[in-house]
């Protein structure tokens, strides 16, 4: 019995650590060979690889703005849902706002990543190619991430203006910091790339 | 080498280190879920906004395991059960079942809202798993199992650093010493004051970037050496304190710092655990000293466990020159005495690490000698009588 218990612990603990090692070590013939098993057993639980900002730290960050309308003619101004929570998070590291910042930023990150991925799949290289853009958006709006984001915006509109809106829209902002070499140059500014997503009618897309 | 591993696995008693590790682990788990609580409705309550992590990684065996759990959108019982299981695990009544419950439910919570989880949550989940394999009891087999699991945790920590260090060594920004500049420019991982000033200092940026890289690559080797271990743990704790407070990654910073406990000697862990235990303490306050008596009164007010007995230092001149206290036949004087009083006041638990640091570095003694013993009001206390 004693031997069985020891064997069981060895097997469970050892397998668990081996999976971790295979997942964490740089890609090599052994890790490649076992990658499908590792992914099957492990990815649901441990989505992170703890690269800890490696091989490079993030070179840009995501934000989004949203606006709401009752009739698709008069629109509210663009609102930033992150700013207040970010400010609270800066003031108090033990506040719940850290999760809200992460929640909103990750939601738009999913959309931006999917947008880029679909664009690549469709071979959209020219940013001015309208037909390709339309195809990308048509595919994107069918994704669960997009619907989830639209629902988040719908709820944000309701919370902000205490009204059920019919039309909503959001835009993503990808913010690039001033490059390190230009950090002390007075006229340097952060670069922001804005991407507008189509107007959604509540009840249709969502 | 092999004989040392054998000795470690079969002979060493790590029960206190394991207990301390578990207390830290489940406390961080509790803190993490309490921070999520005010917004659980947003994170888990709306079916149309839930984005399961399976959407990003494909269906796997583990995802299927989660799907069996039919809690969908019925999140309150799940969270309540999770919190109860954490509280049980923090107590002496923890069982394998309660630990397994914490592990499983935390996995479920992260699965249904992956966007709020970070690397710290993933590490907590892994440590929960290892923790379920720890056994209660002191038979030879159980001791062996516990030592083996503790060794796995230590190896896990080393592999986290090794993989991160190797990956960083391939990154141009890290090897050029400018990576922290870019990390600190992301508003989510920074503070306005840091983005404005500290991030512009080339000395800080280079030292922090290269320092992190060197630390992560050297940790897996230096931590096994008894002489370098305390230094490596100290540097690591400071780095993770910075990550928690400066970068705002509270869970990650805390759990990585807690992971160092697995490398503690059992005796050291026992001393730390003892800080949290209620022990009767007798303190001698000078009844002729007004400020001393005001302090004594304040202590009595917040001594909810009634573990402190106050006596008059005037009973014996031996107690007069400095603050004396006794606990379990052991005598404490000066700042050490103040530290014992503060440890007895459980309400001050959040301050324990700071008090411990002040005590062990003797900075507390220096402050006590400089600003209390030699203060004007104290110097006027001569021959047992004080005048203010």
The helicity of chain B comes to 55-70%
**Dominant shape of chain A:** extended
Tally of extended strands of chain A? 4
Strand order of the largest sheet of chain B: 2-1-3-4
Pair with the biggest interface: A-B, 67 and 83 residues
**SSE sequence of chain A, one letter per element:** HHEHHHHEEE
Low-confidence stretches of chain A: none
Features:
heterodimer, A: 206 residues, alpha+beta, 2 domains, four-stranded antiparallel β-sheet, 4 strands, 49% helix, extended, B: 388 residues, mainly alpha, four-stranded mixed β-sheet, 5% strand
Task: Give the secondary structure arrangement, pairings included.
The complex is a heterodimer of chains A (about 210) and B (about 400).
Chain A: H1 2-24, H2 29-42, E1 61-69, H3 83-91, H4 97-121, H5 130-140, H6 144-161, E2 167-176, E3 191-196, E4 200-201
Chain B: H1 2-10, H2 15-36, H3 40-44, H4 54-57, H5 61-68, H6 75-90, H7 96-112, H8 119-133, H9 140-169, H10 172-175, H11 179-185, H12 192-196, H13 202-222, H14 229-245, H15 250-259, H16 266-275, E1 281-285, H17 290-302, E2 308-312, E3 324-327, E4 330-333, H18 334-344, H19 352-360, H20 363-373, H21 376-379
Helix pairs in contact in B: 2-6, 2-8, 2-15, 2-16, 6-7, 7-8, 8-9, 8-15, 9-13, 13-14, 14-15, 18-19
What does this structure look like?
The complex is a heterodimer of chains A (206) and B (388). In chain A, 49% of the residues lie in helices and 13% in strands. Chain A contains six helices and four strands, in the order ααβααααβββ. In chain A, strands 1, 2, 3 and 4 form a four-stranded antiparallel β-sheet that branches. The radius of gyration of chain A is 22 Å and the shape is extended. Chain B has 388 residues and is mainly α. Chain B has a four-stranded mixed β-sheet, with helices on one face. Classes of the chains: A alpha+beta (206), B mainly alpha (388). At the A-B interface, helix 1, helix 2, helix 3, helix 4 and helix 6 of A face helix 4, helix 5, helix 8, helix 9 and helix 10 of B.
């Amino acid at each position: 019995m004693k031997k069985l218990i020891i064997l069981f612990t060895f097997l469970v603990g050892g397998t668990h650590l081996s999976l971790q090692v295979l997942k964490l070590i740089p890609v090599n013939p052994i890790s490649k060979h076992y990658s499908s098993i590792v992914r099957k057993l492990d990815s649901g639980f441990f989505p992170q690889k703890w690269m800890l900002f490696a091989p490079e730290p993030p070179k840009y960050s995501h934000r989004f703005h949203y606006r709401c309308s009752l009739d698709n003619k008069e629109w509210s101004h663009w609102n930033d849902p992150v700013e207040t929570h970010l400010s609270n998070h800066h003031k108090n590291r033990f506040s719940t706002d850290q999760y809200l910042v992460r929640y909103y930023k990750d939601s738009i990150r999913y959309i931006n990543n999917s947008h880029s991925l679909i664009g690549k799949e469709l071979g959209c290289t020219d940013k001015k190619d309208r037909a390709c853009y339309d195809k990308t958006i048509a595919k994107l709006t069918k994704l669960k991430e997009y619907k989830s984001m639209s629902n988040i915006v719908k709820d944000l509109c309701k919370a902000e203006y205490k009204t059920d809106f019919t039309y909503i829209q959001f835009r993503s902002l990808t913010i690039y910091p001033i490059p390190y070499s230009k950090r002390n140059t007075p006229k340097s500014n952060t670069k922001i790339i804005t991407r507008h997503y189509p107007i959604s009618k509540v009840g249709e897309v969502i | 080498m092999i004989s040392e591993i054998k000795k470690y696995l079969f002979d060493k008693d790590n029960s206190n280190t394991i207990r301390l590790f578990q207390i830290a682990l489940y406390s961080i788990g509790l803190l993490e879920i309490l921070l999520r609580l005010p917004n659980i409705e947003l994170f888990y309550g709306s079916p149309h906004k839930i984005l399961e992590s399976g959407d990003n990684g494909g269906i796997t065996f583990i995802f299927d395991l989660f799907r069996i759990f039919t809690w969908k959108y019925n999140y309150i019982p799940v969270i309540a059960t999770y919190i109860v299981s954490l509280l049980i695990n923090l107590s002496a009544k923890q069982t394998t079942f309660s630990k397994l419950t914490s592990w499983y439910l935390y996995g479920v919570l992260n699965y249904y809202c992956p966007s709020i989880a970070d690397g710290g949550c993933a590490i907590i989940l892994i440590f929960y798993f290892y923790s379920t394999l720890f056994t209660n009891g002191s038979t030879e087999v159980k001791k062996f199992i516990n030592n083996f699991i503790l060794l796995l945790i230590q190896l896990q920590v080393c592999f986290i650093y090794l993989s991160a260090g190797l990956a960083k060594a391939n990154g141009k920004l890290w090897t050029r010493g400018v990576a922290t500049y870019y990390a600190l420019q992301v508003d989510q991982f920074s503070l306005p004051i840091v983005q404005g000033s500290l991030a512009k200092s080339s000395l800080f940026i280079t030292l922090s970037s290269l320092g992190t890289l060197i630390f992560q690559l050297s940790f897996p080797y230096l931590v096994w050496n008894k002489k370098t271990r305390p230094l490596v743990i100290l540097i690591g704790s400071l780095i993770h304190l910075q990550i928690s407070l400066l970068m705002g990654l509270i869970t990650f910073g805390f759990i990585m710092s807690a992971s160092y406990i697995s490398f503690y000697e059992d005796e050291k862990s026992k001393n730390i655990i003892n800080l949290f235990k209620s022990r009767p303490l007798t303190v001698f306050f000078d009844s002729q000293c007004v400020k001393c008596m005001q302090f004594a009164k304040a202590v009595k007010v917040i001594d909810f466990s009634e573990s402190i007995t106050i006596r008059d230092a005037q009973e014996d001149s031996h107690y007069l020159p400095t603050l004396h206290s006794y606990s379990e036949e052991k005598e404490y004087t000066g700042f050490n005495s103040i530290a014992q009083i503060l440890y007895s006041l459980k309400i001050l638990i959040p301050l324990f690490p700071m008090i411990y640091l002040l005590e062990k570095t003797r900075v507390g003694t220096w402050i006590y000698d400089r600003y209390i013993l030699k203060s004007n009001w104290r110097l006027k206390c001569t021959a047992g009588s004080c005048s203010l």
